Amino acid sequence: MYRFFLIIIVVFLTGCQARPNSFHGLPETDSLKEKKVELMNQQFIQMAEKGDIEKVLELLEEGVDINSKDKLGRTAVMAATYNNQVKMVQSLIQAGADINIRDHHKNNVLLYAGAEGMIDIVKLAIAAGADTKLTNRFGGTALIPASERGHVEVVRELLTHSDIDVNHINNLHWTALLEAVILGNGGEKHQEIVQLLVDHGADISITDREGMTPLQHAKARGLKGIERILESN
Question: Most exposed residue of 56, 74, 182, 220, measured as fewest CB within 10 angstroms of its CB?
Fold first, then answer.
């Protein structure tokens, strides 16, 4: 009888010790898994930023989330775009990366590449079906900053190979044409851009908030070359 009660006590005490471990063990396991996934995601983005295609493909094989984000809201393909890693961007697009995701600065692959004149990445983004209607933090499409900054090839690519709206109006109430005239230097590149915009349907009658047309701005700034282009249309 004594041995019987002793066995019962031992079993009871063993059960009491096992239960807390079973309850505390599960959250620790989940937490470790989450931490591992987070570390893998961050490493993935860092390797994409550096252009390490071999490591990026290896992490994809291991099951990393191709559209995971860092603390700045950047995906791997966005981080690669910031560093103009053309081959990396191409590899990630082929692997299924979402190029339309915008980071905390409202940049995505097409918006940033267009603004910075990264023509090779612009071409990749257009070929991959980038959404040209998405806008940056100023409410502008990729065409507007490209026109302002004199990126002739980017402007030509957007106008001839995408469905970009040539007359989109941003938060300043400027179209690509207005911004090219108001902020451009009026030189050969901006003259070529103005001609491209007009040839592809830019409405020269759209005014800014003050009611000034592109032609009026050109005259006010003494941009004779642009003035001639606009007067002939």
Answer: 220
